[in-house]
Amino acid sequence: MDGTVLDLNPWESAALAGSEGTLGIVVEATLKVFPKPKERFRFFAFSTLEAGAAALSAVAAMRPYFLHFFDQGAIRLLNRSGAHFKDAAFTMLAILQGTDAELDLQDAALKDICRGAETYTEEEAREEWKDRYNIELKFKRLGPTLMVQELRLPMGQLLSVLGELKSLLAGYDWGVQSLGSDEGAICLLIFILTDERNPKVFFKAMSLAGPVPKIGYRHEGTVYGISLHNGAHLGRIHSASAVRAMREMKARWDPENLLNPCKTVWSRIPPPFVSLAMVAMRLMPGLTALGMSVAERMPLSLIRIGLKLTGGRLR
Questions:
Q1: For residue 155, how many other CB atoms are within 10 A of its CB?
Q2: Per residue, what are the HEC states of 31-59?
Q3: What is the pLDDT of residues 184-229, one digit of tens each?
Q4: Which domains does the chain possess?
Q5: Cα distance between residue 153 and residue 161, in whole Å
Q6: 297 partner at 20 to 30 Å CA-CA among 69, 101, 152, 195?
Q7: Angle formed by the axes of helices 199-206 and 285-296, to 10°?
Q8: Among candidate residues 181, 230, 147, 152, the one with its CA nearest the CA of residue 64
C-alpha cells in the first residue's frame, strides 16, 4: 500500500462496493441528501406459503421502499422470544414512500394484491420496522447458539427453495426471513438454533453449511456475500475474470495483505478441504470434535504451513 488516494464517482467505486475493506479504505465520502418522503407501513399475514409468495413477487414488482417476509418457522421463533404475531404461514412487511397521491395509488395496488390476507395495524407495522435489527438477538437468546446461512435467488424459485429447506432441516428449530429484494431476486436469511456446548450436536448443525448453498445453486441462486467461512464459493459468485481482477487489485494495493486479510479474494481454506469437513461433521461429529480439540493444541505456525502447502491462505 502506497497511500494513493483515488477520487472516484459512484460508478467507478463499484469495484470497492461490498469488498469489506479488502481492496481499499474509504477515507472521505460526499453524500447527497434528499428530503424525507412520506411513508406508509403495511403488514400482512397469509394462510399459505403459496399465497404469500405470490403476493411478495407482485409487490416486489411495485419497487416499494422496503419489503421483507417471515416464514412460519421464523414467526414461531419470534413468538417464543416474546412477540405476539399471528401464527401464519407467511408474513410480509411493506413500506411505501412518495407523495400523498403516489401513496394512495401504491396503497390501493398493495391492498388489492394482498386481499384475503389478515392485516396488522399501521402502528404494529411501524413497530416491526423499528425492531428489524433486533431479530437476530431475539433468536440468539433461544439458542444458545444461532447459525445463519444466506442465499440470494430468483423470486420465482422461493417456494421450491423453502420446500427443500423444510426437508433438509427437519428436526431443527429454524426459520427464514428475507433480507430484501431487488431486480426479481430475493435474499434469504436462514436461522438455525443449535448448541455449541454439545460438540456432536453443534458440528452436525455446522455441516448444514454444505447442503444449504447447494439448494441455492440448484435453483439458480448462490450464497449471499463472501465471508471468512464461505470464501470457497467465490468462484460460483463471480466469473473467473472478475476473481482475477480482484486479486490483481488486492496484490497491487495491498501486497502485504493487511486489509481484512484473507477475506473475499482468497479462500482461507482450500475448497476441497471445506467440502470434506462438511461431510465429516455430518457423518462423524464426535470424531470431528476430537480432531478440533487436537488442532487447538497444535502450533498455529504449523497449521499455516499445512494450509499454504495445500493452497489455503490463513493469515
A1: 19
A2: CCCCCCCEEEEEEEEECCHHHHHHHHHHH
A3: 899 999 999 999 999 889 989 999 988 999 999 999 998 886 665 6
A4: 38-223 (3.40.462.40), 269-315 (no CATH)
A5: 9
A6: 195
A7: 100
A8: 181
